């Protein structure tokens, strides 16, 4: 079985082709829109996607060495993401499915981030720690859905680090040579400052820490590296703590970490230390597949298609706020 | 040093997220030893601070709730230096296991849990980690354990966070029977603090749950 997947929820127009046996990934082509300044301008992204789409699809089919009639189904991200961007992928996928008479598979972007990670590490039933720019959550499969075991009560870890870096005038750019500015500034830190550490049950909260850190900074009496160090230690420790709570609570023996913040080498080593004490298999999705791509959409589409999930093209609406725990997961035992 | 105070062997019964728990004999009593272990991933100063603060607060709150007549383990001994507590061992099943075994038939205990939570809130304490693993059923009664994240507070926000955590724990772990369980909990809570108070709490819970989403929206707008 071969599935072609299309991703277009934010910066990336990605097309992947996958198969249900080794080597699984047949093609992975991406066209990434980079705004000239600031964040995404949806109009610009849309025209960029429209311009690149035909080529990206053709290249993917070439790379896979197949013609489109050999594809069994077309998968597409319907959400969550930016509406205008999502609509480009959805429109193209609907057209392909209709024209070539292929089933259309509606894929949730967040679920896809998790499923590609499971494929990479051959995980069966991991606790998932999801740390992207928009999300901070702990989830795992229970009674047919990814249930949320823990999350942030206010801002995400990525958003917290970025905001702090900006307010401390350390960014942009936020990440230099694989190191976040906060991690960079923390390298010279030595003294631990007592700032709010907030864990509530399986949840974290960062807004109190952000406010307290900035207040301290504005007194002008604090050593900046010490501040970065203390804040970083508190924020990462809180994340590792709720992950550990998730493991203790669910009894899972695998832990999958997805999302951009997992690229932090400091956070990684903390997670590794915890996992090794608890005797848990840890898989941190490498940057190549942690960012948006079409392969994860194709792969998730394939899993869904095997369970006969598809959508009629005229009903394939985009859902900007489609949450991970709203999707029925039929393909796990 | 520590070993000498026990009248029996230490038997490891659980490795929680924070602590190792042992069952043993202390002053001829059936006892539970809870030691918060150092975490290799934490800055040493932060590690020491968290362990001793939480141990201290847990000890204080256990003692206080027990004095107020609420069903929590009796406190026997506190050692802040080693982040160690010794308390009464409660022989029974956790509510979590009971739900797995008997499904929706255990609503009675959820009602008791609701009553307990309201009484605890009334004394000015919030639990901070209300899950079904932290409720033990013994002789048809419930005991609540693990006050490591508890604190003194009368704020609606903190009480609502307790309710939010309880609901999420039930939703994520006992999804298929959640309706009946949550209904029983609320009945118990209302019996103590009244319909109106509970309604206000639920409003706040909604607000807490929405906060994450507002953030997402803000982020999207920032991107645009
Ligand atoms: N090396 C690094 N160390 C720490 N943080 C990093 C690193 N690299 C990226 N990040 C952070 O990761 C976040 C972006 O992650 P990601 O690309 O997964 O999310 P997104 O696509 O923006 O969000 P979402 O998928 O939720 O819409 C940013 O906050 C960024 O600062
Ligand atoms: N006094 C007690 N008697 C019997 N069993 C207990 C007692 N205290 C705790 N337990 C059991 O041990 C488990 C772990 O204890 P506790 O929650 O205090 O540890 P923890 O490390 O703080 O856990 P976590 O942080 O994972 O919630 C509890 O869920 C409960 O089932």
TrEMBL record, chain A:
This is tRNA N6-adenosine threonylcarbamoyltransferase. It is found in: Cytoplasm. Substrate binds at residues 130-134, 162, 183, 264. Fe cation binds at residues 109, 113, 130, 292. It catalyses: L-threonylcarbamoyladenylate + adenosine(37) in tRNA = N(6)-L-threonylcarbamoyladenosine(37) in tRNA + AMP + H(+). Keywords: Acyltransferase, Cytoplasm, Iron, Metal-binding, Transferase, tRNA processing. The gene is kae1. It is an enzyme of class 2 (transferase). The keyword Membrane does not apply. Belongs to the KAE1 / TsaD family. One of its GO terms (biological process) is tRNA threonylcarbamoyladenosine modification. It comes from Zestosphaera tikiterensis. Its EC number is 2.3.1.234. Residues 32-299 form the Gcp-like domain. Its cofactor is Fe(2+). The keyword tRNA processing applies.
